[in-house]
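Sample entry (82 residues):
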Amino acid sequence: MCRNPLLADERARKRQELLSATEKELDQIVAATQRDKRALRGKDKIGVRVGKILNHYKVGKHFILEIDDARFSYQRQRNQDR
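Predicted structure, serialized as tokens:
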């Protein structure tokens, strides 16, 4: 089996960039659920916004999500086999 270390480094760098960009946008949703005026409420509305972000960056499998009616939180999975 052939392994290209340059390609592996490039893929790791790109994965980190995608994860960082996803976290940045998920943080905006967390802030939207915590603001005083026009807070984002409802599991369905929060779920749609989160789903759009995860579908855009295609890194949903790397996050653990918790969605309630008035709260949203997430964390990145730490033990990755890749």
